[in-house]
């Protein structure tokens, strides 16, 4: 390529880098703003997005999640956009390093999710089952979350109805939650065993595997964008030496 063509290519990629990272920066700012809004005024968030958002807020603590993701996107967007605009090798290298770290973390998380599913089930059983025994039927918010989850997912407990054995709820009502018997009441041990409703962990895993193609496609798309962003930042970084 002639020097003019090389310069034109460099300028085009630089502009695309700026626009792409500007979009990331604005997305991060939006998420950060929503996260702060949720933390400051969660009640209005629930009123706008409905009852399900209340459960999501309790389970995921979406406010902090949005703040963290928003802050990361802001940093990435700033480094990429400002680094390309100012043609700063330092900022471009920092951008490359941050995206590379995120990419490696995502790959590691995917591998762990695939390899250690049974370990995750064991850990969750040790953490969640005692909570079900102690808090279900006692803590109103905790009970609502589990009732909504079991009803929507058509599941019972984390593993199955036996998670409620020796629990406060069973001692108080002499029965299991109706979700453990396909909404039949009273839900005694005989009916629960006959109905054999699966635990929520297994049901959620089934849903994930059913939609694995979609999830894999989204993950592959994100990975491709990250690889492209790293490649472009390295191209600009190396071309700055030639300039």
Give the gist of this structure.
The protein has 243 residues and is mainly alpha-helical. Helices cover 81% and strands 0% of the residues.
Give your account of this protein's structure.
- With 243 residues, the protein is mostly helical.
- It contains 11 helices and no strands.
- The chain has helices at 3-40, 42-49, 51-60, 62-86, 89-115, 117-135, 140-153, 168-173, 189-195, 200-210, 212-242.
- α1 (3-40) packs across α11, α3 (51-60) packs across α7 (140-153) and α4 runs antiparallel to α5 (89-115).
- It starts with a helix and ends with a helix.
- Mean pLDDT is 81; it is low at 51-60.
- Keywords: Glycoprotein, Lysosome, Membrane, Transmembrane, Transmembrane helix.
- The chain crosses the membrane at residues 12-38, 58-79, 91-116, 214-238.
- Its main location: membrane.
What is this structure's SSE topology?
Blueprint: H1 3-40, H2 42-49, H3 51-60, H4 62-86, H5 89-115, H6 117-135, H7 140-153, H8 168-173, H9 189-195, H10 200-210, H11 212-242
Transmembrane segments: 12-38, 58-79, 91-116, 214-238
Organism: Cettia cetti
Keywords: Glycoprotein, Lysosome, Membrane, Transmembrane, Transmembrane helix
Biggest β-sheet: count, sense, barrel?
Answer: none
What percentage of the residues does DSSP assign to strands (E)?
Answer: under 5%
Estimate percent helicity. over 70%
Approximate shape: elongated
């Amino acid at each position: 390529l002639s020097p003019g063509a090389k310069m034109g290519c460099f300028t085009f990629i630089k502009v695309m880098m700026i626009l792409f990272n500007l979009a990331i920066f604005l997305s991060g700012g939006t998420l950060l703003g929503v996260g702060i809004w949720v933390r400051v005024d969660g009640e209005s968030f629930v009123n706008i997005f409905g009852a399900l958002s209340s459960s999501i807020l309790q389970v995921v603590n979406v406010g902090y999640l949005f703040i963290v993701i928003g802050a990361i996107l802001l940093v990435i967007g700033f480094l990429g956009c400002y680094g390309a605009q100012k043609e700063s090798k330092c900022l471009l290298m920092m951008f490359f390093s941050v995206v590379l770290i995120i990419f490696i973390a995502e790959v590691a998380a995917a591998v762990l999710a695939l390899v250690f599913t049974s370990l995750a089930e064991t850990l969750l059983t040790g953490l969640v089952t005692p909570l079900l025994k102690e808090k279900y039927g006692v803590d109103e918010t905790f009970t609502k979350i589990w009732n909504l989850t079991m009803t929507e997912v058509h599941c019972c407990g984390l593993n199955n109805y036996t998670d409620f054995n020796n629990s406060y709820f069973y001692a108080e009502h002499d029965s299991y939650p109706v979700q453990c018997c396909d909404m039949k009441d009273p839900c005694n041990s005989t009916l629960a065993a006959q109905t054999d409703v699966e635990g929520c962990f297994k049901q959620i895993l089934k849903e994930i595997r059913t939609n694995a193609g979609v999830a894999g496609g989204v993950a592959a798309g994100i990975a491709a964008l990250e690889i492209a962003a790293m490649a472009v930042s390295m191209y600009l970084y190396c071309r700055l030496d030639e300039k």
